[in-house]
Amino acid sequence: MMNPQMVMYEEELAQIQAITDKLLRDSRSQTILVVDKNGQMIVTSGGSTDLDTTSLSSLVAGNVAATGGIAQVIREDEFTGQFHEGKDISVHMTLVARRIILVVLFGKETTHGLVRLRVRKAIGDLTAVFEALERKAATQSPQQNVFAEITDDDIDNLFND
Amino acid sequence: MSFINYSAREINCKLVYYGPGLCGKTTNLQFIYTKTKEDAKGKMISLATETERTLFFDFLPLNLGSIRGFKTRFHLYTVPGQVFYDASRKLILKGVDGVCFVADSQEERMEANIESLDNLRYNLEEQGYNLDELPYVIQYNKRDLPNAMPIPELSEMLNPNRVPEYEAAAVDGTGVFETLKALAKQVLNELRKGST
After folding, report:
1. Could you tell me which residues are beta bridge partners of residue B10?
2. CATH for A10-158?
3. Cβ contact A2–B70 (<8 Å)
4. Could you tell me the end-to-end alpha-carbon distance of chain B, in angstroms, rounded to an integer?
5. What is the pLDDT of residue B8?
6. Which residues of B touch A60 (CB under 8 A)?
7. How many domains is chain B partitioned into structurally?
8. pLDDT(A145) > 70
9. Contact A159 B189 (CB under 8 A)
10. N or C: which terminal CB in chain B sees fewer CB atoms within 10 Å?
11. Which of A7, A62, A158 is opposite residue B72, by nearest beta carbon?
12. Does residue A48 register a pLDDT over 80?
């Protein structure tokens, strides 16, 4: 396959969660999402349970993809950051390690400046985790992959509704 | 590019519905949305113009159930079919795990079908994919219309490699789930192959 699968393990997920939980506190923001560029949500911190994170992730990825498209047209390498200012909630999005999007939703309890400052620190930490994750996924032995054991019946059973 | 989350025990895959303008890609997703149980689907998002033409994409997340303890999630996307939205189509193909080409069976749309299929192949190649190596199905939509061309003729022009093909009338749902299931199965099979 051209693109290797993205794989997430317990250990790295806990590290990412710890980074975003810290960022949530330090930046005094409301919700943080870590989304991959294809719109799959990886981690959330904070936020109310009724927030539709699946929709949000897909729209954020669409937005970042469109902005990346604009960058290409004007021959810019990429736009690493985006900011949408709302009346009550604003959104700060940053590309991390070229494949992950860090999304911070914040309100009046904080300022854009503080969010940007804290995000900058978190990006360094997240980049290290995702780089380590990529190396780990590349060296993972195939025997450990659960999908090798999937049978035709398993797949058929999914559709018996 | 599927996303396997060992921690949450989830597999996420991206399926894209491609095809010429007004061939029924959004209608496919709308039917799947209306017929899927509440707990198995998320919100359907349509980024459309005021005249209900897809501007960027439609998005529908589906939970198909568990396989060996892993929740399988499929993210269904459509592309905007109109020719001038090509830049958007390219973006949506990024990270795709499987493609459904929705062809319009009407005789007068044959040229648009061929053009869109060429465009699909070209845009995939630009992203480093080869359509012949991807999970891929074809759906001949609008079989309910009187000017629908015979299947052998459509097949000859649009399906030279004999990938799985399905007849459909997405407005009443005929063939919609058959197409989706066939594609989802191919994607899961590909995951299995990729792991051995």
Report:
1. B5, B71
2. 3.30.450.30
3. no
4. 17
5. 83
6. none
7. 1
8. no
9. no
10. C
11. A158
12. no
**Residue A2: what pLDDT?**
40
Cα separation, A135 vs A43, in Å, equals: 20
Residues in chain B, pLDDT under 50:
196
Q: Which of A136, A145, A59, A21 is nearest to B191 (CA)?
A: A145
Q: How far apart are the first and last CA of chain A?
A: 31
Q: Which residue range is the domain that position B79 belongs to?
A: 3-194
Output DSSP code: residue A69.
H
A40·B91 Cβ contact <8 A: no
* In chain A, % of residues over pLDDT 90: 61
Structural contact between residues A71 and A86, judged by C-beta atoms closer than 8 angstroms:
no
CA distance A114 to chain B (A): 31
Chain B's closest residue to A53, CA to CA, is: B42
Q: Where are the domains of chain A?
A: 10-158
Burial of A43 (0-12, 13-18, 19+ CB in 10 A): buried
In which band, very low, low, confident or very high, does the pLDDT at A161 lie, cut at 50, 70 and 90? low
Task: Output the domain CATH number for residue B47.
Answer: 3.40.50.300
SS3 readout for B24-80: CHHHHHHHHHHHCCHHHECCCEEEECCCCCEEEEEEEEEEEEEECCEEEEEEEEECC
Sequence length of chain A is 161
* pLDDT tens-digit series, residues A101-119: 999 999 999 999 999 999 9
Q: Which two tokens stand for residue B63?
A: 């939970």
Residue A160 has pLDDT above 70, yes or no: no
Report the SS3 class of residue A11: helix
Question: ipTM for the complex?
Answer: 0.81
Listed in sequence order, the residues at least 6 apart from A114 whose beta carbon sits closer than 8 Å to its beta carbon are A27, A28
Q: Is the pLDDT of residue A50 over 90?
A: no
Contact in structure between A12 and A135 (CB atoms under 8 Å): no
